[in-house]
Design goal:
The strands form 3 sheets. A 5-stranded antiparallel sheet has the order 4-5-9-7-8, with helices on one face. It is an alpha+beta fold. The N and C termini lie far apart (53 Å).
Amino acid sequence: MIDVAWPRNAQVVDQANCLLAYGLGRSYGDVCLNNGGTILRMSSCDRILSFDAANGRIRAEAGLSIADLLAIVVPHGWFVPVTPGTKYVTLGGAVANDIHGKNHHRVGTFGCHVVGFELLRSDGSFTVCTQLQNTDLFAATIGGLGLTGLVTWVEIQLQLLASRLINEESIKVSSLKEVVEVTEESDAL
């Protein structure tokens, strides 16, 4: 049997045995399974904690989805630097799985744009991790599938949006070799 908890705020989570965070369930793996433990549905922990619209830095609770984040930041001229094939991923899930997008070879993974986060550790303590503070834990948590603790909030650096419009160009090719050439040329732009 699996218990499911729906917190209003990660700060008030009662320490349960074998607690595992669950976002929106879009992971291809089985990381959200917790046989005999408690699944903590993080989607209700979805508040914006701070947003510097001038510099593109945002801190939000780990249950905020990329879809909801985009609805907030795009009108201010910002975008999430790494977006997976679905926008229905939580920020905590993006950190835990270190998600990637189609621009991975250029901008890296989601973790490359994480400024910091807070972890609720198994001993009940809260630990803030950044590239300069608790660096080993910071590195182990990004892509760590939740094994270092429960991410309560995430702060990321957004990417400046040149336009809300999409520039599309269709190019006809006649061979696989030409596909590779055109792809390499367009990627260099």
